[in-house]
Write a structure and sequence with these properties.
Blueprint lengths: L5 E3 L2 E3 L5 E2 L2 E2 L4 E2 L4 E2 L3 H18 L4 H17 L1 H12 L3 H24 L6 E3 L13 E7 L3 E4 L13 H9 L3 E5 L4 H17 L7 E5 L4 H8 L5 E5 L2 H13 L6 E4 L6 E3 L1 H20 L11 E5 L2 H16 L3 E2 L3 H16 L4 E5 L8 E2 L2 E6 H6 L11 E7 L2 H9 L4 E7 L2 H4 L3 H8 L2 E6 L38 E7 L20 E3 L2 E3 L4
Parallel strand pairs: 7-24, 9-10, 9-12, 10-11, 12-13, 14-15, 14-21, 15-20, 19-20, 21-22
Antiparallel strand pairs: 1-2, 3-6, 4-5, 7-8, 8-23, 16-18, 17-19, 24-25
Helix pairs in contact: 2-4, 2-6, 3-4, 3-6, 4-5, 9-10, 13-15
Length: about 525
């Protein structure tokens, strides 16, 4: 089902004249479907409908929203293999990846539905009045989270399901009570349109208001900029490059009413290999990191782009083992020729830097649009002097930085930009000798991994997928897991409000039986 149109509320439209096609990187040719870019009129209508829908949707109960999210998951699964084949034709990913990522998308929707059905996520807090308190009475105050309003979500290039049309940003915003307008990513708009059709079917079946969801197509920057600047839009979710994320952030800040932009952007995900770990398990870690560097052609935001170690026999052996392992792995298809070109240009820029040498590269023939993996190396002093070497190259390339000693390693880690993840490979008793390194790494990342690889992001409440800038635009939040809902809400207090007019979450009787903070004690009790 490829129509080439835009979903504006519950209506499918194609008012525009500007068109484009998606690309099949495996076949190295354009897909046959033609897509129509959204017009300014369609943008205005989508935002207006979202704002109107907000008046109703924000008052839907947690159970009603849970039914809606579960219905979306059901409708996505009902699309069957046609959706998976569309995904593969626009991404170059294999069917196994499509099935796994669809499972993640569906799982995210259901986890938010479960959160809504339970209800305690609103963080209800009640401080009852003390009318005879001296010298002044204490008022009755009740607080909970309320939704911000219409949210614009930008689909990501590398996750057509999990971080796009019905991905984590959309699922969490809908869970919060915010209507969503998706700016579909131009590389997989056919996939996005099929998922959008599932969302709208679910909205109709569960009697959600018209405008609770819209899906707009646009190949350039005009559509995104128009949505971010629209005065009725109240927040933005983005996953992509630092350049694009920062541009959206700046646009939102320049509005007469600035709005939050929650952008997950660049990360090189530093990995530190401690000497004893390499002495004990050099081959094991070389094999693991060869797989992590090349996974999905390196097109993961958690790809390990920087590897650090202290010069010595252990690091030399690891370097040799990593080179052997990397060269054995067949290259993977990248998302688009533009991605392949950007990767090659970025890798070439790294190789051209003074003091950088290549220690491994796949030596066989690679098909068009396949990323040929590389491992580079440089000494710690040169790395410290050249900021370019710490920049992200999106694709299967990593730089092994050989530090003179622990002091230099600590200095390098302390000066890194913010990252999504940091990893330390070491023996447990070895960690005690590197307390300063661990503290420095913690200060630069959102998730600190011990003896593992950064690729792979579990969707669960304890996961933090964010980090200090530029890994994300606000390190206080995660883009993955149920706690990502807090990006789209704000705290709101009622003072001395009649009990019957309060939201059910704050009423004396606690009819929802949620966990609340009552006079500084967490309880499900009535007031």
């Amino acid at each position: 089902m490829i129509t080439g149109k835009n979903y504006v509320g519950n209506t499918l439209k194609a008012a525009g004249e500007k068109t484009f096609k998606t690309f099949n990187p495996q076949l190295d040719k354009e897909n046959p479907w033609v897509f129509t870019e959204a017009t300014q009129e369609e943008i205005e209508e989508a935002v207006t409908l979202a704002n109107q829908a907000f008046g109703t949707y924000k008052n839907c109960s947690g159970l009603e929203k849970a039914v809606f999210l579960n219905a979306i998951a059901d409708e996505v699964l009902a699309l069957g293999d046609n959706l998976l084949m569309q995904y593969c034709s626009e991404s170059g990913f294999p069917m196994g990846r499509a099935e796994g990522e669809r499972g993640r998308m569906v799982g995210q929707l259901r986890s938010f539905a479960q959160m809504l059905a339970e209800g305690s996520w609103v963080q209800a807090a009640i401080d009852t009045a003390i009318t005879d308190r001296v010298p002044a009475p204490k008022e009755d105050l009740r607080k909970m989270m309320v939704p911000l309003g219409p949210v614009v979500v930008f689909g990501s290039s590398n996750f057509p399901f999990a971080f796009s049309t019905a991905g984590g940003d959309t699922a969490s915003a809908l869970a919060a009570g915010c209507p969503v307008i998706v700016k579909s990513h131009s590389m997989h708009v056919g996939t996005g349109e099929m998922v959008a059709s599932a969302i709208l079917k679910a909205a109709e079946k569960t009697n959600m208001p018209n405008g609770v969801f819209s899906n707009l197509v646009g190949g350039g920057t005009t559509l995104g900029a128009s949505l971010v600047k629209h005065p009725l839009v109240k927040a933005v979710g983005f996953t992509g490059s630092i350049r694009a994320g920062r541009a959206l952030f700046d646009l939102a800040a320049q509005r007469p009413e600035p709005i939050p932009v929650f952008a997950e952007m660049g990360s090189v995900n530093p990995v530190v290999f401690l000497p004893k770990a390499l002495e004990v398990n050099s081959q094991k870690w070389a094999t693991a990191y060869a797989g992590s560097i090349t996974l999905g052609a390196g097109q993961f935001c958690t790809n390990p782009g920087l590897l650090f170690g202290i010069k010595g026999a252990e690091l030399n052996e690891f370097s040799e083992e990593l080179a052997k392992a990397i060269e054995k792995i067949e290259p993977f298809c990248m998302l688009h020729p533009s991605m392949k070109n950007s990767f090659e240009e970025g890798a070439a820029t790294m190789v051209a830097q003074n003091g950088v040498s290549k220690i491994a590269e796949y030596k066989g023939e690679a098909a068009p649009n396949y990323g040929v993996q590389k491992v580079l190396t440089v000494d710690g002093k040169t790395f410290l002097e050249n900021k370019t070497l710490s920049h992200e190259v999106f694709g299967p390339v990593s730089i092994l930085v050989q530090c003179d000693n622990e002091e230099q390693l600590l200095k390098i880690v302390s000066q890194l930009d913010g990252q999504l993840t940091g990893t330390i490979i070491g023996e447990p008793d070895e960690l005690k000798e590197y307390n300063k390194l661990i503290a420095a790494m913690q200060n630069r990342v959102g998730r600190l991994i011990f003896n593992g690889v950064p690729t792979g992001v579990e969707v669960c409440p304890a996961m933090i997928h964010g980090g200090p800038y530029p890994a994300s635009s606000d390190s206080r939040f995660t883009a993955v897991g149920i706690h990502s809902v807090y990006r789209w809400v704000r705290p709101f207090s009622y003072q001395n409000w009649p009990n019957e007019l309060l939201p059910t979450e704050l009423q004396n009787e606690n009819p929802l039986q949620i966990l609340r903070t009552l006079n500084n004690i967490q309880t499900k009790s009535q007031v």
